[in-house]
Design brief:
Oligomer: single chain
Order of helices and strands: HHHEHEHEHEHEEHEH
CATH architecture: 3-Layer(aba) Sandwich
Strand order of the largest sheet: 3-2-1-4-5
CATH topology: Rossmann fold
Shape: globular
Strand content: 15-25%
Low-confidence stretches: none
Number of helices: 9
CATH class: Alpha Beta
Number of strands: 7
Radius of gyration: 17 Å
Largest sheet: 5 strands, parallel
Number of domains: 1
Helix content: 25-40%
Mean pLDDT: 90
Length: 228
């Protein structure tokens, strides 16, 4: 795992700067009440007031702060220096309190003394981890008895089905990593991920990082084994 950390962190540092370059004054938007969470996430999370919540691979903190504004006591964890520094400043500038920790996720989950009512992970996160078993065991470790893990994710088939609806893209059963720079998906998604107006030309990201294709059954099996 250690060999993957440095290029992954470096690639995400660049990607985070690129993504945030499209979003304008996010602190003002959050302070004014803008919400970046999706209805399905909120429905699964349920009542958040006064609940402790670990946001796993929190990226630059926008989702974390929207959860905190609903009353959760949020701790966001991410590998990227750039993401955590941005998240911490966004918390201060928006006036929404939350705690942000820069750490490799598996190390943090298996070493922290903190325990949480909820753990939360969403959209394109676990694929940056090479193994699901220690991830699932870490989640089981940090969630209190009777607590919950809320996981919202793209079905892995989305990476395998091409424009003609054939399985002609990534191998669904691939076990070796896909190695490429983290793309500027905020620009690609435009308003869907909060990009404003004309997208500035971002910095070039030429640092390749490994990611893994975890099938649906593999995710379920890992979580079930950790919970047993």
């Amino acid at each position: 795992m250690a060999d993957e950390i440095d290029p992954t962190r470096a690639s995400w540092n660049i990607a985070t700067r690129n993504h945030n370059a499209h979003k304008g004054d996010q602190a003002a938007r959050l302070a004014a009440g803008e919400d970046v969470l999706f209805p399905e996430e909120l429905e699964l999370l349920g009542e958040l007031s006064s609940r402790t919540l670990a946001h796993l691979q929190c990226n630059a903190g926008q989702d974390s702060l929207c959860l905190a504004r609903r009353g959760a006591r949020v701790t966001g964890v991410d590998l990227s220096d750039e993401a955590i520094a941005f998240a911490a400043q966004l918390s201060v500038s928006s006036g929404i309190p939350a705690t942000f920790v820069r750490s490799e996720l598996l190390q943090w989950m298996h070493e922290t003394d903190a325990r949480f009512d909820l753990a939360f992970s969403s959209y394109g996160a676990a694929g940056w981890l090479p193994e699901l078993a220690p991830w699932a065991r870490g989640i089981a470790r940090i969630v209190v008895p009777g607590g919950s893990f809320v996981y919202v994710e793209f079905h892995p088939l989305v990476w395998s089905i091409g424009e003609t609806f054939r399985l002609d893209r990534d191998d669904y059963f691939a076990t070796t990593p896909f190695v490429e720079p983290v793309g500027d998906y905020v620009a690609d998604s435009a308003v869907g991920l909060g990009a404003l107006g004309e997208n500035p030309v971002p910095g070039t990201n030429d640092i390749a990082a490994p990611s893994w294709q975890h099938g649906f059954a593999a995710v379920i099996d890992a979580l079930a084994a950790a919970a047993s």
